[in-house]
Write a structure and sequence with these properties.
- The chain is of the alpha+beta class.
- The protein has helices at 15-21, 27-36, 52-61, and strands at 12-14, 41-44, 47-51.
- It has one domain.
- Helix content is 42%, strand content 19%.
- A three-stranded antiparallel β-sheet has the order 1-3-2.
- A hairpin with a 2-residue loop joins strand 2 and strand 3 (47-51).
- It is globular.
- The mean pLDDT is 91.
- This is Helix-turn-helix domain-containing protein.
């Protein structure tokens, strides 16, 4: 009881959620970053998601 339990981080997030995680940047900027290869996308059906791994990498290394 009383243990601190953290919710596991999802491996994929939506484009709007990725923008929020990265400080409130716009969906347009997210798409520019995917086109540059700075963020990785995954398609599931008709939906597009951004990988948390690529978000972390971008936050640590930045984008040129």
């Amino acid at each position: 009881m009383g243990e601190n339990q953290t919710t596991p981080e999802p491996p994929l997030v939506s484009v709007p959620e990725a923008g929020k995680i990265l400080g409130g940047i716009s969906g347009t900027t997210i798409w520019r970053l995917t086109n540059k290869g700075a963020l990785e996308i995954r398609k599931i059906g008709s939906r597009t998601f951004i990988t948390m791994e690529s978000i972390r990498r971008l936050a640590e290394q930045g984008s040129d």
